[in-house]
Amino acid sequence: MSKKNESVWYALYTKSRAEKKVHEQLTTMGIEAYLPLKKTLRQWSDRKKWVETPVISSYIFIKIPQADYRRVFEVNGVVAYVSYKGVACVIPDNDIMAMKRAIENQMEFTVEAGQVEKGQQITVTSGPLEGVEGEVMDVKGNKKIILRINHIGFILVVNLDNATFKKV
Q1: Against a cut of 0.70, is the pTM above it?
Q2: Which long-range contacts (CB under 8 A, 24 or more apart) does 136-140 make?
Q3: Residue 99: what pLDDT?
């Protein structure tokens, strides 16, 4: 398969609160799109309700070949590709897989912007994130794995209390 036809992951920046509509339109166009969602309990004056909200506001992930690069701008709500020095950042499959596993298995996690101090590199050996490599840091006494998603400037912090891991 040539490079031009090979599908890779990119992050798209969307208009505020347009993530679900953009996801729906991209999917309708036949573009593989991933919108990580989490359930949160929202409080209104008269009731409480569980709603699904994006894990990372205004971001959606797509897997496309380079030939479809411009096609995503046909979707209302797409603002731009997340890029570095004017070039759209390719996100490794492993980063997307790790995020999907953490969300699908309802692992306790947070997404944090910025950089963390360098720590021990590990590979998870059991649990939903088995095989995923990451950087460890001690956060409030809990074992956490830091999965850097440098390409978009975020870090996925996952609680590893019920998993085992080994040093790389």
Answers
A1: no
A2: 136/165
A3: 85
